[in-house]
Amino acid sequence: MTGTQPSEVRRSAAPEVWGKIPPRNKNFTGREVLLEKLRSGMTAGTSGQVTVVLPRVLPHALHGLGGVGKTQMAVEYAYRYGNEYDLVWWISADQRVLIRSSLASLAPYLDLPSAAAIGVEDAANAALDALRRGKPYNRWLLIFDNADEPEEIRDVIPDGPGHVLITSRNHRWEDVVEAVPVDVFTRAESIAFLSKRVRRALAPEDADRLADQLGDLPLALEQAGALQAETGMPVDEYIELLNEHASQLLDEGKPTEYPISMTAAWNLSVSRLSERRPEAIDLLRCCAFFGPEPIPRDVFSQRVSDLSPQLNELLANPIKLSRSVGELGRFALARIDPSSRTIQVHRLIQALVRDELEPEEKVRHLADVHRLLTGLQLGNPEESVNWGRYGGILGHVVPARVQESRDLKVRDFALNLARYLYMSGDGFAQEFVNLFIDQWEKDSGPDDPHVLKAYREQGNILRQLGKYNEVYELNQRTLGKMRRVGTPDDELLLLVSGIGADLRARGDFAAALSHDEDSVRRHEAAFGPDDQRTLRAKNNLALDYSLTSRFHRARELHEIAYIGLQDAQAGAATVLVHWNALARAVRLSGDYAEASDLGEEALAYGLEYLGGDHPTYLWTAKDLSIAWRRLGELDRALEMCTDVHGRYVRRYGLDHPDTLAAAMSLANVQRNNGQEQEGLELAADTVKRYPHVYGADHPYCLACTGNLALLHRTCQDPEKARALNEETLEKLERRLGRNHHYYLTVATNLASDLAALGLYDLAVERGRDTYGRLKELVSQNHPMSLACAANLAADLKRLGTSEALEEAAALREDTRDRYAQRLNLEHPDAIAFLEERHLDLDFDPPPI
């Protein structure tokens, strides 16, 4: 059933979501057969009403030479059949970074968190998932404009109930999807178009002659029609001038890559416009060095120093500037969109403009574009409120060859863009920063200050991707270079702050502690104790205290950092990182109710200001589920942890460290909720994956192996649990010593393994040693100490000697009092103690 058949039942309502579709071309002409073919293919296989579509319809590609009207046909399709869809969304696909950015901006219209809240990559993936599921809309149309290589967008074509339309110049699409080739106009279409485009009456025979001269190329006809409309030039005169320009071009032997008719028509339009308003040509030449995406009008509304004299004079005169913009539109040399306040020049016109310039002129115009881009006040790239402004100009950075500039301001601008991509979670971040590093190293050498700053951003991006070994090696090299070239302390310390995380990722907790103690001293000396940078350094040091079993010191320092950042009015993501770190420290101190209260407040804050898929929100949700589990609220903990683990898998895949940490926490709560076998399977898979991230002897890997051993015992295999725990304990002792809470956690569980095997004398021996160390390390009232004491009392009683029974009774009475004081006797741990059941200790991997 085609889109124009009388039998179609058409919806009268406009789409609920109408996104970024270019303005409709009021002079669109013909193409009826192609539009019908396209619509027929889109709805192929459906039955009944046109609005009913198959769950899966292959995308369609419009391909052809530049200037034949592929994009205009896609625009017309969107307007003509828009009321058949609930959602229509336009995506500029000539740069990969723009594809995900555009999909991310769709997310809020699908009732999903915005890119500002969760990052570009997550927002784009969430939008694709919603489209695949058809929730909340199953009648949708995505238009990918100017998609070059099929491989570049295959992963962003949603396999769902809607339709996808692609425009491309690449004929390889014919091998991938159903293709609708677009040719130049038929002669009848050319005549009809010119008759519509030129305001005064144009005789059919004149339109026919003009179309013949222009080869029926739609873009060339648009140029000719615009010039005719503006100047009233007779057709004979236009054809004569056109032939002169064409002959001149052919005599010069150019341009072989563009249709000669298009080049001649453009040349003639530019020639006449330069006579009428020469400053408009300066503006056009400047626009030719931006990307083919819409250029924000604000780019030309700013006062920027060091521009070329002609452009500077034009931008200083707002009346002349507005007139020039209008003239470019009237001569069809640019598309002016008043609603979005943008200027857009067709890529073919851009190429023709650039080809006409001498090399020194190209250099001058590129420099102007770079200064205009860097002059924009985009704000702090770490603040999510500014990400929309950064995203709006991103599509012009690579086409404008910003990476080739040696201007220091331009390089600072590029680093801010890299920071924005990193903070927003955009998957293009690594490719982007590598592009600049490669170019800057060639131009300025590997020790250039901006190259070193780019290395620092590259390290942050790699760490976010969980590539810890690469980050460590990169940052060590960068630190050495910075010291060798004398990088100022304020720049050097930005790298120093991250190296503590690199050491934690290597499992060198003591080295990280020493490093971060020195880092805090240096930050305080350089910036003062209350500067945000110093407070972040203190937060890092507090993480080290937690990893070296100094829970109360960690708690104190996290509180200082969190309060300080609140007073300093830091951004929402930074505040939440520190808020959650404080809640985690409170939990590790054994105050589960207080940790739950803090975590619930922090989570509500994160949801309001960042959204439910932001990485920091997910950390907070995972930690809150652990606090609930420790408090005994197992149903809430299981629901939360299951959801968080699923989000991590979708965001990062199975092997990212954050996914693995969430998986281990989920296995722990499954064990507590009677799902021991599910927990065992998940823990076994996680332990298998962990060494690829951290290395086999990393404390996180070893402590998670202890969790796996615990699950073997709860699944009725205490012998296997004992063997695994004994092996793990030896490795932990070599790595951390006996007075670390990871070692003592596994040691407590090993005593339970021995008791389960009836080896009460060995269980008591292990329990006495462990309990003594825990009392010294975390205090006698800490829940870890109480659990060990409870187990020891039970094992002493089962040992049965008179001395053991006496010791058991005294220990049991003391432990009961301490449970009543610390957790209350209705807590699940206290109940297990009173029933003389063994208590288990487990481990949840913290962030580095």
Structural features, described:
By secondary structure, the chain is mainly alpha-helical. It has 4 domains: 17-181, P-loop containing nucleotide triphosphate hydrolases (Rossmann fold, 3-Layer(aba) Sandwich), CATH 3.40.50; 211-376, no CATH class; 387-532, Serine Threonine Protein Phosphatase 5, Tetratricopeptide repeat (Alpha Horseshoe); 703-848, Alpha Horseshoe (Serine Threonine Protein Phosphatase 5, Tetratricopeptide repeat), CATH 1.25.40. It is built from 38 helices and 9 strands. Strands 1-3-4-5-2-6 form a 6-stranded parallel beta sheet, with helices on both faces. A 3-stranded antiparallel beta sheet has the order 7-9-8, covered by helices on one side. Helix 35 packs antiparallel against helix 36 (783-799). 52% of the residues are buried. Residues 1-12, 46-58 and 249-256 have low confidence and may be disordered.
Total count of helical runs of at least 4 residues = 38
The largest sheet has its strands arranged as: 1-3-4-5-2-6
Distance between the termini: 58 Å
Coarse morphology: elongated
Keywords:
Serine Threonine Protein Phosphatase 5, Tetratricopeptide repeat; 4 domains; Rossmann fold; 38 helices
Give a short synopsis of this structure.
The chain has 848 residues and is mainly α.
Topology diagram in text:
Blueprint: E1 17-19, H1 32-42, E2 60-63, H2 70-81, E3 87-92, H3 96-106, H4 115-118, H5 120-133, E4 140-145, H6 150-153, E5 163-168, E6 178-181, H7 187-197, H8 204-213, H9 218-231, H10 235-251, H11 260-276, H12 278-287, E7 295-296, H13 309-315, H14 318-330, E8 335-337, E9 342-344, H15 347-355, H16 359-375, H17 387-393, H18 408-423, H19 429-444, H20 449-464, H21 468-485, H22 489-505, H23 509-527, H24 532-547, H25 551-567, H26 572-588, H27 592-609, H28 615-631, H29 634-652, H30 657-672, H31 676-694, H32 699-714, H33 718-736, H34 741-756, H35 760-778, H36 783-799, H37 802-822, H38 828-834
Parallel strand pairs: 1-3, 2-5, 2-6, 3-4, 4-5
Antiparallel strand pairs: 7-9, 8-9
Helix pairs in contact: 3-5, 7-8, 7-9, 8-10, 9-11, 10-11, 11-12, 12-14, 16-18, 18-19, 18-20, 19-20, 20-21, 20-22, 21-22, 22-23, 22-24, 23-24, 24-25, 24-26, 25-26, 26-27, 26-28, 27-28, 28-29, 28-30, 29-30, 30-31, 31-32, 32-33, 32-34, 33-34, 34-35, 34-36, 35-36, 36-37
